[in-house]
Amino acid sequence: MTKILKINGLEKTYKSGSKELTVLRDISLDIEKGQTFSIVGPSGSGKTTLLGLAAGLDTPNAGTVELCGHDLNTLNEDQRAQLRNEKVGFIFQDFQLLPTLTALENVSVPLELQSAKNAVDRAKELLEKVGLADRMHHYPSQLSGGEQQRVAVARAFSNGPSILFADEPTGNLDEETGEKVIQLLFDLNEQAGTTLVIITHDLDLAARTQRILRLKGGKVLTYETTAAI
Amino acid sequence: MAWRDAKASRARLLLFMASIILGIAAVVSIQLFSQTLTDNIQRQSKSLMGADFRIDINELPSERAQAIIDSLKPDASEVSFVSMVAFPKNNGTKLVRVRGLQGDFPFYGKLETEPITAATSYQTLGGALVDATLMLQYNLQVGDFVKVGEISLPITGSLIAIPGNTAVSSSVAPLVIIPFRFIEDTELLQFGSRKRYEYFYNQPDADLAALEERLQPMLEAENADLDTHTSTSSRLGRRYENVGSFLNLTAFIALLLGCVGIASSVNIYIKEKIKAIAVLKCLGASRKQSFLIFLIQIAGIGILGGIIGTAIGVGLQELFPMVLKEFLPFDLTISITLQPLIMGVLLGLVMSVLFALLPLLRTWYVSPLEVLRVSGDTSKQSAKACYVAIAVIILFLYAFSYWLLRDWLFALAFIGGVLVTFGILSGIAIGTMKLLKTYFPSGAGFTTRQSLLNLFRPNNQTIVLLVAIGLGTFLISTLYFTKDILLDKAEIGQSSESANLITLDVQPDQVEAVANTFKANDLPVLDNIPLVTMRMHSIKNKLVNTLRTDTTTQIKGWVLSHEFRTTYRANLINSEEIVKGEWVGSQPAGEIVPVSVSENLAEDAMVTVGDSIVFNVQGVLMPTVVKSIRKVDWANLQPNFTVLFPSGVLEDAPQFNVLTTYAPTEASSARLQRALVTKFPNVSVIDLRQMYTVVEDILNKVSWIINFMAFFSILTGIIVLIGSVRTSKYQRIKESVLLRTLGAKNKQILTITALEYLFLGILGSLLGILLALISSLLLAIFVFEEPFAPSLIPFLVFLPGISLLVLGIGLSNIREVLSSSPLEVLRKSG
Question: How far is B624 from B610, CA to CA, in rounded Å?
């Protein structure tokens, strides 16, 4: 199978005052195309940092990240942005919708950034898929938490990403709504063949992915394959 | 709690403070300076006049007047008049004010000359003191000669300063001082010359008030005037008070602009604190407590801003003497008084609390339920509380303007004007947002749409930015347009149809020879106007002497003592228009002389068509009747008259003439002036081309002061701009980073921000210029009564300049976005 994400010897340190704080130490992993993958670990274990580095949102102090066949160390910020725009989707715990845009406009942003011609049609299609056909012209502030996260899911899939990173996607949602969003995520993953990388505290959710990476103190604790295969 | 909360938002609160610092600095520095000016005028009262008191008269004193003057034993005297002088060294000629001095004047203050000894030696050596700038202009040195009328005198020194004279008055008519004993030899004091006799008294122990009370009525009856050093200085004080009021108002506008900045920043600040306030309320904080937390913060900022602003104001005060030196007849000693300092700090406190009041009120109405809500600010403010807050703000502004202007009507007009300007600017800002919302260009590209969306997004700064940019541009553009109108006005006379050289004081026996001199220089005689001087003897059968002592009369004082220069002719000229009655061009046989008076004279002398006026034409009483009232375009620089006689009456009265011509080049003008000065030393020539330069020079000096004041408003505007941009910085960073996370390139983020600020900059500055255009047009129509052809400079220079400045400030804000990691957004959520 093709490897969509290859991480090798990744290390990240931050400066905290005069001290250096190592958040990630010697992380190596690889994810195959179309796989579902979860990263679990206690708070402060380096999950979000790892996701950020994997998606090219930050640069490591050591090690390499190869995303969709591109070595991120060799790309500049704009090139990494272009790669994200074309190949990557994101879902955040607190939705991160642009408050000044309607649901429809939020979903079409990634395609608009590519100057895609069918941006609005594609966004409408996706909103229908996530069950928000009647809420397209609402602003985020007029939507419930669950609806906002569904808009975020639609946005994440709007550019037809090869890989989708979800950072605790159900963290701000009630159990029922959370379950609906997760089901949606998995359905869309299945239909579009998108690789899914989820950061979560929820071990049941992690168990639904094909592989689980457990982090603790910035190091890999275990790297296991689940029954979900 | 207020302090703990403020510590966390220190940077933001400091920026709010910066908005008012400059305004306070401006107000305090001007207050201090006004105080210094008043102190200096009082302290230097005697040296402003150079004497304890003086008697002045615009004609040779009558016997009775001379008796009074002599009885007081003058210590010095002078006669002064405007005349042409020539500099044989380089054939230069110039219209100057000649002062023939005798005695040891000034008794207070100094006659500053170069060399210093010239101040006294010009009297003993029999030389002249010539204005220092004039000496530079004409490349004159001590020892060169100046020809005054029929005599030539060596220049003993250059005149730097003399009590009572300002740089501006010198630029209108530079001074040449000569010993009084030579005046007769100049032969310049002929019939009809405008001259002024002054007698100076060095009597430090005199009871000035008693003297004034006793002698003034007697002297007034003889057309003379007694001035004490105290009355002169208080008159001067009042004049500078007006200037002070104007400067104060400009400073106040800067402060208001800063306060609008505070109101807007606090509004966003409080919006962001709603959740925290709701949490506090959940934990049991009362409405009063939560309100006080933020009130104390704002009050603290106000006091601190007041203190810093006041300190800067004290420093700035030092700049004013430099800015105003051309207009001050004395050197300033800077002093610091307590009142402006206290006022500065209080103003900081009161203004910031007042303007923060509306957004602060919101804390009162925050419901603890906010904690549980996902988004949106649903706190409802009481409309009544808002109205009360707005009323308190307007009342305070009115009270403060009244305190600055001491005139309730002016204060009302000022506050009204400010409210209208702010109202128009914010109204247009709101209208623009609504228009954008309604007619949103959905078909435009993503970056364009995103940047336009930012203009009416939640927490947008459109209103405050447009007000700040608009007001700043409005101030400088109005200044520019007004200057244009004034210069255009002065430029009349530059066209070939109208005269640009006016020769005054031509004696009847010289008229032909002067006209021939014109012709010899290939210049036409455009006008030859006879002038007859006279005073009013009675108005509507009441003697002028009686009217002078009548305290109930509404007739303006100048009318009663003015020496009218009148003319006679059969026709009206193009600067005149009859508004009442009918014009009679020639004297009907056997009737009372029909005269025409100008509108302003009719108003000031309280006369109308049919009223009788008896004129004293050099000893001969001449009854007349007002037959018509004329509107006169005084702006037209050709000779105009308040009283016009028909032909057939004054032809035989003692008179002198004014001849005018048009000299196409400076060289031809100089040639004619030289010829006239050589042949007719008593004739004065006014060169309108030179006058234009003088007017331009004065306007430049005035506009330098206004520019200096506008600078405060503009700088405050920039600070408010930076403050507003910074206030929304965190939200901007968050959103821009999110866009970056979704794959936006730096160029796209830059374009979104650039378009937004460019739009704000262009709209704001365009609004400011358009408002300035309207106000200047109104000024042109109602005040200057001039046609107004707006200059393109504000459109070509201010519009792009200010737009680029706004763009620069906006872009500097997202520099951080471009350099920060997109991971921030994840950190916030993770």
Answer: 10
